[in-house]
Amino acid sequence: MDHSPGYGSAARFVALAAMEVARDTEAMRRTDPVKILEVAGRHAGWLPAASALGQRTPAEGPHLVYVPERPVGPESILADVEATYKAYGHVVMVLSENQPDTNEQVIGSSGRPRFTDAFGHHYFDSPAASLVDLIRQELKLRARFEKYGTLQRMSIACRSETDAEEALRVGAEAVRLALAGETDRMVVLRRESDAPYHCGLSTAPLAAIANAARPLPPKMVPTPRDGATPAFRRYAEPLLGAPLPRHARLA
Q1: CA distance 237 to 196
Q2: Among residues 76, 139, 148, 166, which is most buried (max CB within 10 A)?
Q3: Does 118 have pLDDT greater than 80?
Q4: Is the peptide bond before 205 cis (omega within 30 degrees of 0)?
């Protein structure tokens, strides 16, 4: 499957939130110079990677993006924060809710989950909260973090028109197949064209998709300081619907 219904709208929310936080942090950099956004996605970086889609220049945030496909130690993150602060006077960081360190343990968790749900998914303490404490202690910079929780998957004001149209098509096809007696299958979107963007409908065995994780392909995994890769932009930007807004900036 190319993507699930809902991803385009969630990605749009995350991209817009990162743009707004970047502008606010720039304005408040003398009192609150470091802001961390902790984004959903468990063990795959599709949403954290989308946070950089609204970035126009390297000086605009998010300056640092960390995804689970690229484990990173707290020491390396501190070095990135320090270098970014020296370059721009403020830092906006995005990371996954389960960002692993180089030992494949969620940052700040010591490898111990807080609890495990009925599907076997582990829930850990916030890596962003742990990094905020480290930044304050080691770099002597005031840092804060935001965790959007379920808001990032239910903010209707950020709905992507592309996502809404595809969701209706997928739902209608699922009803048609169910009435025809199909079972244990999932309607999926298969990309047929990038320019113009178009996805067709197909089906796949539900057992091949349910409760499984799909990581970012290597060509879409961002390096922390370089924003979205060209391959990820080609993939994700059509899913956002209308172009992202551009903030005004005085010359």
Answers
A1: 12
A2: 166
A3: no
A4: no
Mean pLDDT of 203-232: 93
Please name which of 99, 87, 86 lies closest in space to residue 49, comparing C-alpha atoms.
Answer: 99
Q: Please, which residues bridge with residue 146 across strands?
A: 37
How many C-beta atoms surround the C-beta of residue 221 within 10 A?
Answer: 17
Residue 170 contacts residue 187 (beta carbons within 8 Å): yes
Which of 98, 120, 96, 93 lies closest to 111 in space, CA to CA?
A: 98
> In angstroms, rounded to a whole number, what is the distance separating the alpha carbons of residues 122 and 118?
10
Give SS3 for 143.
strand
CB–CB of 65/51 below 8 Å? yes
Are the C-beta atoms of residues 57 and 33 closer than 8 Å to each other? no
Q: Which pTM value belongs to this model?
A: 0.92
Contact (Cβ atoms closer than 8 angstroms) between residue 64 and residue 94: yes
Are 82 and 33 contacting, i.e. CB atoms less than 8 angstroms apart? no
Alpha carbons 125 and 112: distance in angstroms, whole number: 9
